[in-house]
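#lab-general

N.A. 3:47 PM
ok so I finally got the sequence cleaned up, no stray characters, all 341 residues accounted for. can someone with queue access submit it? mine expired

B.Y. 3:52 PM
send it over

N.A. 3:53 PM
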Amino acid sequence: MSKLPSKTCAIVRMVLLDAAAFGACLVVFAYFHHVRITPLHPTALPESTQTPKLETPAPNTPAPDANPSPTPEPTGLLGAKYAEKFSDSGTILDATSYRSENVAIELRTEYAYDSVVHVADIYIQDITSFRTGVYDAYGSSPMLTLKMAQQAGAIVAISGDYFSAHMNHGMLIIRNGQIYTDGTPKGYDTCVLYYDGVMETISDAEFDRDAILARNPYQAWCFGPALLGEDGAALTSFQSTIKTNNPRSAIGYFEPGHYCFVMVEGRSSESEGMTLQELSSFFAEMGCKAAYNMDGGKTAEMVWNNELVNARIDGGRSVSDILYIIDEANAGTQSEEEEAE
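B.Y. 4:20 PM
back already:
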C-alpha cells in the first residue's frame, strides 16, 4: 500500500486539527450559552426611579344639599380606549381570547412569508400585568418555556432573551423593576419597557444609561435586534448576524397598554421561518411603533392557557426567562365552556 505524499499528509492533519478546534469552540459556546448559568443577584432600582405607590384617598362625604359627584374618568394605561375589548361582567377565557376588566388578549394564527405565525394581541390597564419570569423563582436551572409559564400562572407567554447567556457581556438587564446587570452594551440593541407603558428600542450608539434610569424602567431586554425604525417603518439592515429564515420570538409595541407577542414557526415543510427583514415588515404591516427580536430557533415558543401553541422543534430548549401576561385580579379564571356546564 503506497504512502500518501508528505504534503498531502500535512494538509490532512491541518484539516483535522481545524475540525477539532471548531468542534471545541462549539462545545465551549454550548456550555456557556445553554448549560453554565451565572448566579443571579438582582438589586432593586434606586428609589428615585421607582414608580411611587399611589394611595386611594378616602371618599369625601358630601353635604346633604351637595350636587352628586361627577362620574370619575377611567384610569389605567388605556383609560376608556378599547373599552369594547375588556369585560365588565367577569373574566371570560376561551380558546383564542381572554377578557377581564384589566386585561384583554386576542390570539390568532395566520400564514405570512411562507411561515405559520402566532400573534397575541395584548391590551392591559396596569403595566405590572406585563412580566418577565426568571428561572430562579421556580428552580435552580433553566426550564422549558411551557413549564415556566405554567408555574408563573401566565395567560400567554413567549420565550425571552436568554439573558443568562449575556450576564457577563456588559448589558443593562432589568426584570420587573429589578436590575440583574448594569452595563453599557456593545454590539447589541436594548429594548426598554417603562412603568408608564412606553416601549422603545435603543442602539448601542444611542445608549444612555442615566437617561434610561431617569425614565423609570420596568423591563430591559438584551437580545435583539431592534426591528423597526423610529417612525415604525420596516428596516433593511440589522445589528445581528442571524438574518436567515428561522423560528422567531418577538414583541411589538403600538402604544402604552397595547402590545403583541409574535411567535414564528420554522424549520419545517409547513413553515419556513422568517428572515429579520420579513419579521420587520410583518410588524410594520401590523402598525407597531417599535418591535424587538428575542431568542429564536429551538428556543422560540408560545404558551396559551397552559398549553404550547406552536409545534416544538427537536424537544425545544430550556430558557432562563419568559415574557408573559398575568391578571392577578382574576386568578380564578373560568372558561366559557366551564361556565356553561
